[in-house]
Amino acid sequence: MKVELYKATDQHANMPDYKTAKDNFSWEEIEKEFSWYESGKVNMAYEAIDKHVDEGHGDKIALHYKLDDDIQSFTFKEMKENSNKAANLLKNAGVKKGDRVFIFMARSPELYFALLGALKIGAIVGPLFEAFMEKAVRDRMENSDASTIVTTPELLPRVPVDELPHLENVIVSGDDVDEKYISYKKEFEKASTEFDIEWLDKEDGLILHYTSGSTGQPKGVLHAQYAMVQQYISGKYVLDLKEDDVYWCTADPGWVTGTSYGIFAPWLNRATNVIVGGRFSPESWYGALEELKVTVWYSAPTAFRMLMGSSDNVVEKYDLSALRHVLSVGEPLNPEVVKWGMEVFNLRIHDTWWMTETGAHMIVNFPSMDIKGGSMGKPLPGVEATIIDDQGNELPPNRMGNLAMKSGWPAMMREIYKNKPKYDSYFIGDWYISGDSAYMDEDGYFWFQGRVDDVIMTAGERVGPFEIESKLVEHEAVQEAGVIGKPDPVRGEIVKAFIALRDGYEPTDELKEEIRVFVKNGLAAHAAPREIEFKDSLPKTRSGKIMRRVLKAWELDLPAGDLSSMDDD
Ligand code: PRX
């Protein structure tokens, strides 16, 4: 296929060129830009919010929160005071440094106050996506022995409060809060706007994001305070954030993009950050870009494809002239989408590649670089990436293999929570193995090829087949279940389940729907299989493990490969 080349434009003329940035790069030099460099004592919430007030920018708008036709705006000073109130509220409840504090709320200013407040105490924040249902919430809170959850009356029923032995505080927003719980609103109103921040070591915990692999329960990926060095510099270089920018990252803070680039990177760079509540529609999204005069926009291929598919050029009704830089993450950015971006925004869409585990950008279309349509770009300055074979040998250009990075970048995960063997399994020697396959071309551009494991990427969200299979077999009609990602033109992949029923159950469409709703209500909407196919039995290894590889081959009409270890009865 012919590769389209999109030349760098003077739109990013003030950016260093890639080679200069790379050749002169050292993490040590970036560290010196932080106020904690001399003392060694740090706190993300201070660097992101309070510092800007101390440095005379208290009146600058930090946050525009838009929900339908309503916009609430907060200055850095107001963010400082509100997060201090939240910190006092949590401290009064007994929350201490190192405690795991979960935040389970729909996007709202309160969510951001609570999150920053928890960080000011030195707690480790566990953000939960608002679509999670009880099992997803329970698995995460149980694994991390969470002491506290901050939630809303709507989401509270999904928190198994009586079954989590380590849970001490349930803090609920809204007006009529049951006396058993702490009222966020009442305590917040009473709380002082002054707070003494807990000063931390740069290796102390920051945030715990759960993410899916192909086997086992979701893994708790723990990041340290020190991640800020990379989040800051990638915000500056890759997002190209400047003093006057209005920046919108569309990801929910339940996922890593919504924290690293929805909270930390923009505020470390003192940008005005935009949060849009409510559901996606082309009108509401274009409306937000227009009304808030967004200049830098970070979103995902599925969203771009949904906008692309919207009828009658909805985009023409909006004035998007403020927009100057658009970026993408989470799934392969198809060359057609880059082309569409040029047509509708007259801007290049800059792909970025990274993962929950990497904590920040790793491979990027640096703003001053030529873009090859369909390529993820080149390593962030300071990051060493390569392609290696399964033994850990580096491969020459244009050979497909494991996308790997040299350990030691600042935002790298520090732990898989309580699971050292799992953490160790990511590495071959010094190389961190991403689980993606890719190749590097002769110019040093990286090209994504696929996941090496069975992880499903649907609409930019990473779902583990095991988690869904475990939920499916809880349904009374399901004997066994195997789940795969089926290619889909809009969502990248959709979740497809193959199910063998227990004796006595009929394979009807009603039952399919019932099973789908069962997963949706028990786990999360995005994890519910969009397609279900009943089979008499599923292909298994001798040890009883369902062979998803064979299911995928069935689905795609491919040869199934080596079946020698399959069950023969
Ligand atoms: O397969 C890659 C895909 O998303 C995975 C990481 O998922 P998660 O931890 O949920 O983080 C998503 C956003 C940081 C990767 O292993 N992925 C991420 N970015 C890209 C991508 N695939 C192709 N192109 C990308 N730019």
TrEMBL record:
GO terms for biological process: acetyl-CoA biosynthetic process. Pfam families: AMP-binding, AMP-binding_C. It is an enzyme of class 6 (ligase). One of its GO terms (cellular component) is cytosol. Keywords: Acetylation, ATP-binding, Ligase, Membrane, Nucleotide-binding, Transmembrane, Transmembrane helix. Gene3D superfamilies: 3.30.300.30, N-terminal domain of ligase-like. GO terms for molecular function: acetate-CoA ligase activity; ATP binding. Its EC number is 6.2.1.1. The chain crosses the membrane at residues 111-132. Residues 467-545 form the AMP-binding enzyme C-terminal domain. InterPro entries: AMP-bd_C, AMP-bd_C_sf, AMP-binding_CS, AMP-dep_synth/lig_dom, ANL_N_sf. The keyword Iron-sulfur does not apply. Belongs to the ATP-dependent AMP-binding enzyme family. This is Putative long chain fatty acid-CoA ligase VraA. The lineage of its organism: Bacteria, Bacillati, Bacillota, Bacilli, Bacillales.
